[in-house]
Amino acid sequence: MTNGPDGLRCMLMRGGTSKGAYVLAEDLPAEEEARAELLLRVMGSPDPRQIDGLGGAHPLTSKVAVVSASDDPAADVDYLFLQVGVERPEVSDRQNCGNLLAGVGPFAVERGLVAAGDPETSVRIRMRNTGDLATATFATPDGRVAYDGATEISGVPGTAAPVVIEFRQSDRPLLPTGRVRDDLDGTPVTCVDNGMPTVLIAASALDVVGDEDPAELEKDRRLAGRLREIRLAAGELMGLGDVSGTTVPKLSLLAPPAHGGAVMTRTFIPVRCHTSIGVLGAASVAAGLRVAGGLGEEIAQLPVGQGLLRIEHPTGFLDVESVIEDGTAGGAPVARRTAVVRTARKIFDGTVFPRPA
């Protein structure tokens, strides 16, 4: 740990529709418990307002990206995502975050882990939470990261420079249960993992329309109880074990599209309704829609052929390029290509002073 006792070198960045603290692994304690204790104080947790730290009182703004040079020949840097609890003193590494992923490449260049090219740079990233690989490509004119640009993404005001993220094919099965559909206590679902373990559920099966405001859905205690039951059962079925203390698998309610996209979604993490949708969650939804016989077959409106799918969410849409093929000898389907366009922005770079222990 290279920082003094009174401060931690940190860059606050917006990545996609999330915001978090980006730090070098070498600047944090090596011991997991000590690292978690420090990050809770950095983010101001546990406290519903996170008034005494960097956190923004919501899971989407209480995140940390830990970045280091990679020893994997297939990657330039390693990225460990940590979800910091807001009201509970928890720091979890049991999931990825595809939104903060958008800032990892620029951060790696800013910190000198990767040399910038001109006019653009591609950074190969190993996501330590799962071992998956992705490549982020972004503009670096004159060898400097460009954050200004004309790309607009839903859920973020204004425009910024694009970050194109392509995910490499995972070794994990696209359908963790080995089936295109499962029945969880009378509710049909499709369980899919294209970077994020996700359970697809027809909104109508839970007696909601699927286009409600997130705050309205969060107030529905009956819905929250049913979602909890489904998530716990799905966790066991997907090989994740007891998920009562984690935020995976994600649950995505599907409804017919309202704005010309492929499908309308409402995603829960785990009972808070996402104001948009996570990148990896959207990648899993898109792949799930492509699976023949899956739950989305009678809900989604898919364009002809493979390629771009527009996933609608509470504040707009997210476009995912998703190509699914049958496995060899007619085996289980596999995701051959997944790519998204995100943006990221550096908010501050300096020293954060954690709340006293």
UniProtKB/TrEMBL annotation:
<protein>
    <submittedName>
        <fullName>4-oxalomesaconate tautomerase</fullName>
    </submittedName>
</protein>
<dbReference type="InterPro" id="IPR047687">
    <property type="entry name" value="OMA_tautomer-like"/>
</dbReference>
<dbReference type="Pfam" id="PF04303">
    <property type="entry name" value="PrpF"/>
</dbReference>
<dbReference type="InterPro" id="IPR007400">
    <property type="entry name" value="PrpF-like"/>
</dbReference>
<keyword id="KW-0413">Isomerase</keyword>
<comment type="similarity">
    <text>Belongs to the PrpF family.</text>
</comment>
